[in-house]
# Entry
Amino acid sequence: MPGERQREQDRGDLLAGEPVRRLAVDGQQAAGQVVAGDADLPPPPATGPHPFSLGDPAVAGGILAAAGFTEVGFTDVREPVYYGPDAAVALDVVRGLRGTKDLLAGMDAAAAESALDRLRATIAAHQTDAGVLFDARSWIITARRP
# Structure
């Protein structure tokens, strides 16, 4: 979520008719799949907010068009996401995500511990000199309000 300064800049851009650029984050799927193991991940809700609700350009573009925006464009960005300086911090971060919490809550104790073991191993495999990094994909969405 942008800070107050960014929100003010966006409002000014809208009033001036300038394009607004916003990063729509698309991530967390790898951690969810690791926790789920061989089980299928539950599908996201058909409607309403969820971590990937704006991941489909048709959906995001439709929302912007309905709000009066034109010249909607999408640029695919692939950059790593930093989960913390080490595996212990990254595990705390991932365990704090709603999706991870929900998946673990639906498991018995043995399955949850097995899932956490898989998660620890996956996080350790992503440890770099710069911290724990996972590949991520986002959209930079541009639009103009006439």
